[in-house]
Amino acid sequence: xxxxxxxxxxxxxxxxxxxxxxxxxxxxxxxxxxxxxxxxxxxxxxxxxxxxxxxxxxxxxxxxxxxxxxxxxxxxxxxxxxxxxxxxxxxxxxxxxxxxxxxxxxxxxxxxxxxxxxxxxxxxxxxxxxxxxxxxxxxxxxxxxxxxxxxxxxxxxxxxxxxxxxxxxxxxxxxxxxxxxxxxxxxxxxxxxxxxxxxxxxxxxxxxxxxxxxxxxxxxxxxxxxxxxxxxxxxxxxxxxxxxxxxxxxxxxxxxxxxxxxxxxxxxxxxxxxxxxxxxxxxxxxxxxxxxxxxxxxxxxxxxxxxxxxxxxxxxxxxxxxxxxxxxxxxxxxxxxxxxxxxxxxxxxxxxxxxxxxxxxxxxxxxxxxxxxxxxxxxxxxxxxxxxxxxxxxxxxxxxxxxxxxxxxxxxxxxxxxxxxxxxxxxxxxxxxxxxxxxxxxxxxxxxxxxxxxxxxxxxxxxxxxxxxxxxxxxxxxxxxxxxxxxxxxxxxxxxxxxxxxxxxxxxxxxxxxxxxxxxxxxxxxxxxxxxxxxxxxxxxxxxxxxxxxxxxxxxxxxxxxxxxxxxxxxxxxxxxxxxxxxxxxxxxxxxxxxxxxxxxxxxxxxxxxxxxxxxxxxxxxxxxxxxxxxxxxxxxxxxxxxxxxxxxxxxxxxxxxxxxxxxxxxxxxxxxxxxxxxxxxxxxxxxxxxxxxxxxxxxxxxxxxxxxxxxxxxxxxxxxxxxxxxxxxxxxxxxxxxxxxxxxxxxxxxxxxxxxxxxxxxxxxxxxxxxxxxxxxxxxxxxxxxxxxxxxxxxxxxxxxxxxxxxxxxxxxxxxxxxxxxxxxxxxxxxxxxxxxxxxxxxxxxxxxxxxxxxxxxxxxxxxxxxxxxxxxxxxxxxxxxxxxxxxxxxxxxxxxxxxxxxxxxxxxxxxxxxxxxxxxxxxxxxxxxxxxxxxxxxxxxxxxxxxxxxxxxxxxxxxxxxxxxxxxxxxxxxxxxxxxxxxxxxxxxxxxxxxxxxxxxxxxxxxxxxxxxxxxxxxxxxxxxxxxxxxxxxxxxxxxxxxxxxxxxxxxxxxxx
Length: 1059
Hints:
By secondary structure, the chain is mainly alpha-helical. It is built from 49 helices and 13 strands. The chain is elongated. The two termini are 84 Å apart. Residues 252-272 have low confidence and may be disordered. InterPro entries: AAA_16, AfsR-DnrI-RedD_regulator, BTAD, OmpR/PhoB-type_DNA-bd, P-loop_NTPase, Sig_transdc_resp-reg_C-effctor, TPR-like_helical_dom_sf, WH-like_DNA-bd_sf. Residues 1-95 form the OmpR/PhoB-type domain. Keywords: DNA-binding, Transcription, Transcription regulation. GO terms for molecular function: DNA binding. Belongs to the AfsR/DnrI/RedD regulatory family.
């Protein structure tokens, strides 16, 4: 390229037609920067003289694209430009020094000033080739004029430098011609005049030398009113007196004439992070992790744009410098990513191949192995979007890793999910800290604004910017970008109400073509594959890159890899996505679905994501496939969303497909804890199957409850005949395999358990559970066995299979391990918990409950946390800490109420019952128990009768007693039968006293209600003593009181040992 004269360029020796003035001006402006980056805002301002048209950025991008084709005609598609390069926040010319004549000239002058041996020859060549005024087309612009003046000074400086060297070499005559021309053009250049006079004198032309000296003296006096410099007077003295030769000092190099040699445009680097005190908190946690060689957890909490990612990046940089390994995983902001995806990213960042199994325990084990040798920082970004498997892996890693490990998990507090809060509760015992990010101070605002292109904000503007953004780094950056584009008026006039509007205003400045491509990129997600994006847009990849470049340069997009681009922040992507009208959005998702079906047919999650938003019946197969894959990978919330989308489309179409979708939804809804919706979906599926007369479909519908069960799945005390009748018909039919029979029997057991006042239903439930396990063993199918052992274990919570509880839990654990399902593994531990509690093994019970909690995820985790909290409250009752116990029960109640759990109020009632038993007075609970009985008759009948008696209302107690029915043989049977015995003794019902005494004696050394893990009803032997007293058997009463005393002693010993 040449700018020392008319602007020209040649490629491979052939001249290039650089096009019209606008295109030539863009190239000249970049050339004038000497290889340095020129921001797009400055380019636009300079090229349009401060008055750019509305779409100036689009015009600039067209100029750049055209110039790149001219300057690199042989560049391969999708390869980055190497001449006119993109460097945020703009462009630069990345040319070698000898490829641009102005830079080559600077290099020649620089080397000559150093005294290189060939300096005179190099300067001769330079001056001979200098073809005229620099940038002559653009001297009417402020930048062109300034650069032309600078290069003119460089030329004059070269002439003077050459003359100085020729004089020193004794060749004065060769310097005269160029100096004479220079003095004529620049009559005020005193140094050039002095050198010319000296050259003339030393060439034997004294008279001409004196003429030049008189000229410059007059010029200085007349035009400038100054005397000649000492050096010029010394020259004049030599010429007039023939004195000793003047030693001419070397020609100094004006700083503005020959700039330092520019480096090649640097690669983009991460901006310097604004120092924040929160970083020190995280580093302190890292020190603690090293000191204890144990996992530590840091929760980094902040609103959108508060600097969570930047803070963790700063921590990662600092720990890397200390020798730590670091890895980051981001929870995707849109659906369509595989379950536990952040941990897959983390494993890859640590150089570990992810396991073939996506089960959370397998993933967690891989993470733990990779963290056992050197200190590791793991960053989980945006866990407010985490799916259940991601949170479960987090819990497993923090609970089982060995070595110095810090997990930093970031989230937005206003978007925290119930699952996340449950995970936080489960991780409460892991050492670490919580960091709440606040806004940066004014110094931080100034630093961020400077990096965003607004370095010279005055104090008043900085104060307003700080107040407007509250120091939120993202808001500061966006406003600073707006100030750079629109000036400080952006803060004072029409101030945007939110950062979204700031982002929107910045997006409005982008070329129309760029905006179109950005909207398609937003459809694809936070990041987009360039091949996929090009196919959805319908452009070549080179044209696509040209369209995206303005977005990259303005900080909307970033190049995450050689073939992917991503939005720089979630909010930017959200604003772009929201700008797409709903109808166009659906069409764009359909286009993405079509492209991905061809280019990535195995990316089930991404296909399903676009199928949800495509809003067309043709997407249903992708939805069903995605839902099944999500279920397989334990992403039940994602699966239910896909099932629900498919259901919406099938409601008015094919009934067979609708039945399959409903069957799929039952399991996911049950896993998510929505028992009511799951039952309704199953009821509808059963109805469709019966209407079709399809027994196979009926079997699939009736046995569709595939989720593990901890608490009852019944929603009414009445038997649900819409489900039970079909199950009974199936059970009586000739089912083809033991697996079929086992699944039907398992479903029937759960539908009949806990039926009040129907002993035959209790027996049928028991028979079904026993048969289910027997047939499941015959089936040799661990998935079937897991469901059957869950049903049997549930029935065994009652009084009829006490000796088989532990063995059944072990069998269930084996089946759960075989199928890799942590949900069923959690149930196995839960069954062990209840078995230990029933045996008054308090330590064993808590250990098993903790193990169940460790395995649980999602809604099941919330259930198990509730179980653990209620058990701790029960232990408080046993220890006599009644106030603490009631407080714990109340906390659990509030938590469950916030989750919308129907059992919330019941938990509080259990706490008050236990307290009343402990103090020997339930009278204050009469009204509360009466209200429960009015809704669910018989559920607390015997407690209610005892409460009425404690309140002195014997008549009401007898009225309730007359209609009371024995309690179902489930997990509350022992507690409620204990209350029944006490009520019978106080009311003198000899028949019931005899019946309950026989029933309770096998459990005489137990604490009633402890086997449920939630209720204290006193020692069973104490109730037997009351019965014996009423029967007049003082000896038996004394014996039972001794047993009760011994039971309480064993409890106290365990409590003392645990403190």
